[in-house]
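Quick check before the chapter quiz. The format below is the same one you will see on the exam, so make sure you can read both the input and the output lines.
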Amino acid sequence: MNDYSITILTFIAIQAIVACGLNVIVGYAGQISLGHAAFFGIGAYSSALLTTKAGLTFWAALPLVILITGSIGLVLGMPSLRLREDFLAVTTIGINFIVESVFLYVPFFGGALGLGGIPSITFLGTRLRGPNFLYLCLVLLGLVLLISRRFTKSWAGLACFALREEETAASSMGVSPIRFKLLAFVLGTAMAGMGGALYAHLMRFISATDFGFPLSITLMSMVVLGGIGTLWGPVLGALILGVLPEVFRPLIDYRMLLNAAILLLMIRFQPAGLLGEGSFLRGLFQRKGGTSNG
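Here is the expected output.
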């Protein structure tokens, strides 16, 4: 692959990590979150500040970035537990705008000029760039998928599924909505923070506009397109929405319009996504599998 293809795949892998975190919140716990880009930005800015101003390496900063992003997710997730549906959606949108404004207007975060001079990632004295950076992103994406799978098989994951389907019934059976929804929110935001750290060191310059509300819509489109609540759905969604703009480069100015259109069409005709229960693609694979076995 050439450098251009490697860069596109690297961006797709990073967005897939963030989309997997959103899937934990929306797909597993059933919470509406339209401000996930805020936590992506928190992770990016945390890693940038820790490596430029505190002098830490990427590897030393990464655990702190995950801790910081998850802790902020915990704090911001508490008020959201008292809200439902439309009010929760509006609240998460507001969180995105507030976080973006803090990055934009507070001088400590670079203000409108952004943050530059972010160091490259090195491993065993070798600077990670090109294919090596892509390999790192793929390894961390695999780790995120492994954590997501383990979460779905755990008691916490089963409790989140129960709350997603019927919160009142689950509560009557002793499942704590506050405890498990917050756990999902913290886990999902921590994954977004990991993706943000990778993004910061890939770009080496970040600004508040990189993490605006349109990015949150794009991330939600990835989850919905691939399949809400499925393991590989966010990865498939990130791959499709990452490749399409490159294929249809003349329509790049209408990218957000196309993402919104895809989101609405999927909700209308394939609400389970491409890999969800009852989806066209999943049914096609099952039919082929049945034919092969026959």
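If your answer matched, good. The first helix runs from residue 3 to 28.
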